[in-house]
What we know:
Number of helices of chain A: 18
Helix content of chain A: 40-55%
Oligomer: heterodimer
Radius of gyration of chain A: 49 Å
Number of strands of chain A: 4
Mean pLDDT of chain A: 82
Distance between the termini of chain A: 122 Å
Strand content of chain B: under 5%
Shape of chain A: rod-shaped
CATH topology of the largest domain in chain A: Cytochrome Bc1 Complex, Chain D, domain 2
Radius of gyration of chain B: 23 Å
Structural class of chain A: mainly alpha
Amino acid sequence: MATTIEQSEKTKAEPELIGLLAEFDDPQALIDASMKVRDAGYRNWDTHTPFPLHGIDEAMGIKFTILPWIVAACGLTGGTIAVGMQYWMNAVDYPFMISGKPLFSLPACIPIIFELSVLLAAFGAFFGMLGLNQLPKLYNPLFKSDAFRRVTNDRFFISMDASDAKFSEIDSGEFLNSLNPISVEECWSDVSSPKLPRNLVLGLSLVGVIMLLPPALVAYKRSTTTNTPRIHIIPDMDFQPSLKAQNTTNLFPDGREIRPSIKGAIPRGQFKDDNIPFYYGLKELPEDRDVVGIALQDEKKADAKKADAKKPVEAKAADAKPAAGKPAVVDAAAEAAKKLDKLPWVTEFPMPVTEKMMARGKERFRIYCSVCHGLSGDGDGLVSLRAMELLQGTWVKPASYHTDNVRKQPVGRLFNTISNGVRKMPGYSAQIPPEDRWAIVLYLRALQKSRYTDANTLKDDEKSKLRDTK
Amino acid sequence: MASVTTKPIDTTTIEVPGQRAPLVLGSPDYGTVTESVCRLAESKTPMSFYVALGISASLMGMLFGLIGYLIITGVGVWGNRSPVFWGWPIVNFVFWVGIGHAGTLISAILFLFRQNWRTGINRAAEAMTIFAVICAGVFPGIHIGRVWLAYWLFPIPNQMEMWPNFRSPLLWDVFAVSTYATVSLLFWYMGMIPDLATLRDRATGKIQQFAYGLFSLGWNGSSRHWHRYERAYLLLAALAAPLVLSVHTIVSFDFAVSQLPGWHTTIFPPYFVAGAVFSGFAMVLTLMIPARSICGIEDLLTDRHLENMTKVIIATGSMVGYAYAMEFFVAWYSGNRYETFAFINRAFGPYAWAYWIMVSCNVISPQLFWIKKIRTTPWMIFVVCIFVNIGMWFERFVITVTSLSRDFLPSSWGYFKPTIVDVLMLIGSFGLFLTLFLLFCKFLPMVAMAEVKSVMPRPGGQGDH
């Protein structure tokens, strides 16, 4: 008692008496005393024990807490959130179809409903308890008492608040003394400055400023532009050692990253040998399959030779005849054309020719071929005209279909031209399925025929049709 | 102090029908309980503690180093290869989650059943639960490969405008394990608040006063607070009890909901839960037996506690054994030849060695506890529990790997080989677990003092409540 008063006299502000504290060393004594305090009509008072003392609730007249209701409400909220969340996320906002099951089915939701109910109820129990107890409350005037430190060890206390209507310093003190405590102590309010120490304030503000730096940097970077590539904090799979199309590598002798298909390999669903005329335009396959489509293949080989020539070992040889590449291509192409002439091309269409097929051929021709060859096959397509206008030296004018050479070619050969290309013309087998290629050949033949047919050999109704359409 | 013991001191530690052994030995009063628990945190730390901490912390460091290596290099550093994509990491996950079951079970279920003997062990067991769940959480976290995308596991609004699939047991697992971790942490922490206040009130150093003061939230032992506190504790226990059972049930769904022979069985949920409790209790004993003699708290953690726990182990061990037998019976009785093959392959196939390690450790060794001598001799309990720990790890290995390595397409069958990284990560996870446990022993109240005091006979011979 005395020490508390002496200490407080040193400080300027007047300390106030805020309560009395009676100490007991026996739980039963506390319970007995509590009943007397309760019966005396005090309201703002409490007992403090190192462990939950059974029987104290009745002795003090503590009302049953509303905590269970808080917990129940939180649990229900959790369950409701879980149902709503799962329904909205998987059935409405991002419908998730899995093995044809319904988008929303309650049984699959039960585990998460259960978990979220428990989670929120547990939060309710924990934070509800703290809230109702007004904790955390790190400062409490009772903590100034040295004796009170044993409340968490082995002593039992009654604290009586000065704010109680019945409280008076002398009477209440006497009353507490009459309960046979070990001691009764006065509690005074704290008058020391509530200000934080200077260094702490400085330190905390420094930490605060430093913590603002990263978000500020992010905000700055987001609102400005830069010429340098973005920073890959997390590289994910942005950089991979794998080879890509259109790039070069020295892993393969031809220097290309994209690999041509392996000789003799048959892609799934592309077995063609059961219908050679249909798929190749040939009566039978030649010994060396590469001859089909050889025009392009040979050029590739020539390119590969050029690539080889660039290698340092052969550099000198290449120096000796600088134009070695070009003649090689020409020679190879001429040779290839000769080889193609000799092949057993089919001369008849390998399927019945119909009106429908002709219409299809016309349509496909206009899509795929007319850009270069022109609508009537004279080699004056838009792409070609434009290329000529740009005066690009490398442009080869598309062949006209109406030359003797092309007119004499059997249908199989024309089919092969579309499939595998010829000299500067690329193949179209990847874009156009075989039926359509045959349809195009049919239309091509019709275009050729239209140039060389004597009008007088036409029937009358056909002649009138000619006049009608321009 | 105030303790007046009228009866002669009861030092029985063994249960005799009709007479209960005391929960606390010697002639304790409230002060000595406080003293013996707080002494650990307050007295000078022995050298052996630093040695133990050094070893386990270096193992933990190794784990983190390996995780760094894994993240930089990719999951190829593990032995997970087609067809076994759930190798050691998932085995470790299930193993640790299982261990994490004992703590909350002891705290919650034994609390609800008013088993007062739990007060001596619940704090340490709860701590163990939380540390085991932390170890468990590490593995699925790094198993996803690109760890920075781990947030995809949770329903967080994102730039892809996608949501997770709530019909997947793997997502249920995310919710179950994270809820379990959170609730266990709350339960543990809440139980500790009054004891942290004790440490606060006894602390002499400034840092201790500040830290314990902060975490004890200003607890002052008010009876009005205790009233709500006890209610909250009871409610948390009531919530945690079904939660414990749900967690391993849902972990078992990860397997049982798929269609792989050997996994697709309805016995999995109860069987996993029994196994979890079994392994959890074994781990509690493995830790507590050395810890109680090193820390000198044999009076609070008596032989009776140990014996009670061994009885739980016999019960759950027998359930696990029954489940093994039942799996075989159902495989045969179902007439499904894939199922039959999966089980015959388990016991007699390439992983037979693992299967028989599992059976001898899990089914045979706990039966030794029928012998009273073994049940009451700490070192013998310790040895048996080590076997149970080993057996339970192998159980998860057998389930995960045997079924996966023999999938529906015989051409893709394979034999799982772990890499050195797999092995070191498992060892490292023990380092993480032990480091956390040692720090707990050093800085936090290892025994729930307030609870022990509330079950002690009151001075003045009022008897326990």
